[in-house]
Every structure is written in C-alpha cells, then in structure tokens.
Design a protein that fits this description.
alpha+beta; two-stranded parallel sheet
Length: 64
C-alpha cells in the first residue's frame, strides 16, 4: 500500500475527532465530517470551538 496516496476520514469533529484529524494531517491527506454546519463554518474560518487544538493548529492544517 502506498501511504502517500492514502486519505483518512474522521467523522465527528468534536473533542476526540478534531485532535485526531489535526494529528493525522501531519502525515496524511485528511477529510473531516461533522453534522453541525456551524462547527464546519467555524473550523473553515480558523476557529476551534473545542479549545482542544487551538486556532493556530486549525489555520495551519490542510483538510477537506
């Protein structure tokens, strides 16, 4: 398996999913999903509602 082409998905971007996504995004292409449009909008604008990873980590992470 070629890990460079691997895409990992995280469902639920709360207190567990968001830090998991941020951590894995350092090495893999990531896709995040959450049912809350408000949460997604906040993350896309660089704001961490959970205060688990911080706004800088959100802004510096590339994920879909």
């Amino acid at each position: 398996m070629n890990h460079q082409n691997l895409t990992i998905g995280v469902v639920g971007l709360g207190y567990v999913g968001l830090p998991l996504l941020i951590s894995f995004a350092k090495h893999y292409k990531m896709v995040g999903f959450d049912i809350s449009k408000k949460k997604i909008d906040n993350l896309l604008s660089g704001h961490d509602d959970t205060n688990e990873v911080g706004n800088d980590a959100i802004k510096n992470t590339k994920a879909s």
